[in-house]
Amino acid sequence: MQAELIAVGTELLLGHTIDTDSAYASRELAASGIDVLRRFTVGDNPARLEETLRLALSRSDLVVLIGGLGPTKDDLTKEIAARVCGKQLVMHEESRRRIEEHFRGRVCGETQWKQAMLPEGCDVLPNDHGTAPGCVFRAENGCLVALLPGPPSECEPMIRDRLMPYLHRLSGGVIASLMVRTFGIGEGTAAERAEDFLNLANPTVAPYAKDSEMFFRVTAKASSQEEAQKECRAVADRLCERLGSYVYAVNTDGTSQSCLENTVVELLAQRGLTVSAAESCTGGLIAKRLTDVPGASAVLNMSFVTYSNEAKHRLLGVPMEILDRYGAVSEQVARAMAEGVRRFSGSSVGVGVTGIAGPDGGTPEKPVGLVYLAVSDGEHTWVRRMNAPARFQSREKIRFRAASTALDMVRRLLCGLPVEEGAV
């Protein structure tokens, strides 16, 4: 099946809002073996939307329109799509009832009922997170058309929980997927190691990079859920062998088990160990990410944000002679921070991070993007140097990448893996 996506909204076209919906839809469709050939962004202009839709319908099996389903005058996606596809808009009573329930006890303007007007004969995709339902129907030429709400908090769940199961039922068979998650391996190296997997037909393996990580989605189609999951697991296991110690998790593509900090919290809890962090340039981001995970209170002992030299000396016991001789951003200070916070807190593992996140503060010897990271278990201390050139990285990305590297160092320590391995 070949698909095209059309995101609707002038705010997207002008760059005021980033179109995350289309990216999410592309990944979900590709993971199910649907080829996304083109993506368009169209403003709130009826003539241009109609032109784009007619062109997409003429050459694709599936057209997904995102946005423009709301109650305002410029929300015209349904009207245009219905006209182009030869459909009448009719009141869908169940959707009207859901809108009524949503506004119970509040004033509900007459314009809200517009959201319940849907193409006649369509299959409705209920909106569990908002008022505008989605729907799926066929155009006169047989092309499948899906209409989805624009807000990501509504669109993504509808794609995941409504649209994809609908498409799976249409295609016959059952789809299952697993996500192999890696950190510290370069995109090129990962692609080389997984090259032969990327040509598989069933299961399929689809890679993508995000936030200095590489993900590989393994998707299988079979006659039963059990068989699909079995096929996914077999390929995922082989892929993990190929990618080695860079794999930190293999799980379904939900949010509750999907991040590096979840893996670290789980490993600490399994071993009955604790961790404390001393952060400078990351400003508490490591602690924040750990405490985002339910159950972190059992493993995170304490955390310090020690920006000044005085704080590093007074709270962590970093000797002033080391600070004066090597500077705050140095291997020696990172080492002393990790050892100091572990000693002060009594934790099993101490983490120290110091660096220059920019945009100012760099020098030729210590440029913006230079970060030193250390972990200590009381017997050994490991230090890594991270270089993230500012011309390629924002302050936010440098800090996030540093926090991820520190978390991965802890993961490697807990798993008995080489702590200093991996691209930074």
Protein model, in words:
- Helix 2 (20-31) packs parallel to helix 6 (152-171) and helix 3 packs across helix 4.
- With 424 residues, this protein is of the alpha/beta class.
- It folds into 3 domains: 2-171, MoaB/Mog-like domain (Molybdenum Cofactor Biosythetic Enzyme, Chain A, 3-Layer(aba) Sandwich); 174-251, Alpha-Beta Plaits (2-Layer Sandwich); 268-415, Alpha-Beta Complex (Maf protein), CATH 3.90.950.
- It has helices at residues 10-13, 20-31, 46-57, 77-85, 93-102, 152-171, 187-193, 225-243, 260-271, 285-291, 309-316, 320-326, 331-345, 395-415, and strands at residues 2-8, 35-42, 62-66, 89-91, 117-119, 123-125, 134-138, 144-148, 174-183, 204-210, 213-222, 247-251, 275-279, 300-305, 349-355, 370-376, 381-387.
- The mean pLDDT is 93.
- It has a 6-stranded mixed β-sheet, sandwiched between helices. The protein has a 5-stranded mixed β-sheet with strand order 14-13-15-16-17.
- It is elongated.
- InterPro entries: CinA (IPR050101), CinA-like_C (IPR036653), CinA_C (IPR008136), CinA_KH (IPR041424), Competence-induced_CinA (IPR008135), MoaB/Mog-like_dom_sf (IPR036425), MoaB/Mog_dom (IPR001453).
- Residues 4-169 form the MoaB/Mog domain.
- This is Putative competence-damage inducible protein.
- Belongs to the CinA family.
Portion in beta strands: 15-25%
Residue stretches low in confidence (pLDDT < 50, at least 5 long) are none
What is the fourth-level CATH superfamily of the largest domain? MoaB/Mog-like domain
Helical content class: 25-40%
CATH class of the largest domain: Alpha Beta
The helix count comes to 14
Q: N- to C-terminal separation?
A: 39 Å
| Molecular shape | elongated
Radius of gyration: 26 Å
Counting DSSP E segments of at least 2 residues, the number of strands comes to: 17
Please name the CATH topology of the largest domain: Molybdenum Cofactor Biosythetic Enzyme, Chain A
